[in-house]
């Protein structure tokens, strides 16, 4: 690699009510930028996902102090981290992109080491947790089960114990910009795009301040998005379950007919009738539910609404090559 190979790298930070974490984050980001090696140029891109606390004024203030490398996008409301990240990806114009949480669970000090691998030619340097400090046993276990299930039913290689903390090359950024699906699960999308991946082990820290912004219902929805965005296997399972149950029901019906013909009408049969009814009812509802999960997503996608709306922004004036940008009309013009 020659010394003239200078690359630009955006560090994108999705934030939702992170006022407690931001002061510490700013400090560590300043240190990161100050110690940048000659061949790296950082841009910090804060994506505020509709915070209701002082996150926005803090970011505005910070951006004012560091005009040359701090950018921000403020979404018009809380769209969820997935869409906040998509907004950031759509507005990345640099050679590379690092996605990092605002709560400093992912240490920014690792970015230069990740960039080292990027300079070596890797296109998706994903950080894999060696440990997960401060997360409950339940969260760790459900996450482990979920990813092994997803891998089995989708037949895709899913990176274990990874989050969104990773460095993506321009090639990956442009690939992700083309995936404008409305029900997003980024981890699934990162796997789906492929490219030269390499894992990078790290210890995930505790949140510096504040509390997790994810609730179990949100996580469940994200988990369903992961499955439905990857595979229609559950629909096939529903078909198989339906076929097996109806075959069994047919055999049982034959048995009942024959038994009635041979030994006459057998009035007591309440228990068996109830069992069969409840079982069939349950299977039917389950299959309808599975169809519903897909149908709902088709509905959301066909409405064709934009994935996010921008209320205010401060971005570099460079054009964004390759980015088709549905929001260009709404972009703020603070620094442009
Ligand atoms: N986040 C976001 N929108 C949301 C929820 C979270 O932008 O609706 C951001 C949050 O500010 C943080 C990152 O996503 O920077 C990860 O969130 P959190 O730390 O709450 O998740 P966890 O680390 O517990 O998975
Ligand atoms: Mg966190």
Automatic annotation (TrEMBL):
<feature type="transmembrane region" description="Helical">
    <location>
        <begin position="237"/>
        <end position="258"/>
    </location>
</feature>
<protein>
    <submittedName>
        <fullName>Glycosyl hydrolase</fullName>
    </submittedName>
</protein>
<keyword id="KW-1003">Cell membrane</keyword>
<comment type="similarity">
    <text>Belongs to the glycosyltransferase 2 family. GtrB subfamily.</text>
</comment>
<feature type="region of interest" description="Disordered">
    <location>
        <begin position="313"/>
        <end position="336"/>
    </location>
</feature>
<dbReference type="Pfam" id="PF00535">
    <property type="entry name" value="Glycos_transf_2"/>
</dbReference>
<dbReference type="InterPro" id="IPR029044">
    <property type="entry name" value="Nucleotide-diphossugar_trans"/>
</dbReference>
<keyword id="KW-1133">Transmembrane helix</keyword>
<dbReference type="InterPro" id="IPR001173">
    <property type="entry name" value="Glyco_trans_2-like"/>
</dbReference>
<keyword id="KW-0812">Transmembrane</keyword>
<keyword id="KW-0808">Transferase</keyword>
<keyword id="KW-0378">Hydrolase</keyword>
<keyword id="KW-0472">Membrane</keyword>
<feature type="domain" description="Glycosyltransferase 2-like">
    <location>
        <begin position="10"/>
        <end position="174"/>
    </location>
</feature>
<dbReference type="InterPro" id="IPR050256">
    <property type="entry name" value="Glycosyltransferase_2"/>
</dbReference>
<feature type="transmembrane region" description="Helical">
    <location>
        <begin position="270"/>
        <end position="295"/>
    </location>
</feature>
<dbReference type="GO" id="GO:0016787">
    <property type="term" value="F:hydrolase activity"/>
</dbReference>
<dbReference type="GO" id="GO:0005886">
    <property type="term" value="C:plasma membrane"/>
</dbReference>
<dbReference type="GO" id="GO:0016757">
    <property type="term" value="F:glycosyltransferase activity"/>
</dbReference>
<keyword id="KW-0328">Glycosyltransferase</keyword>
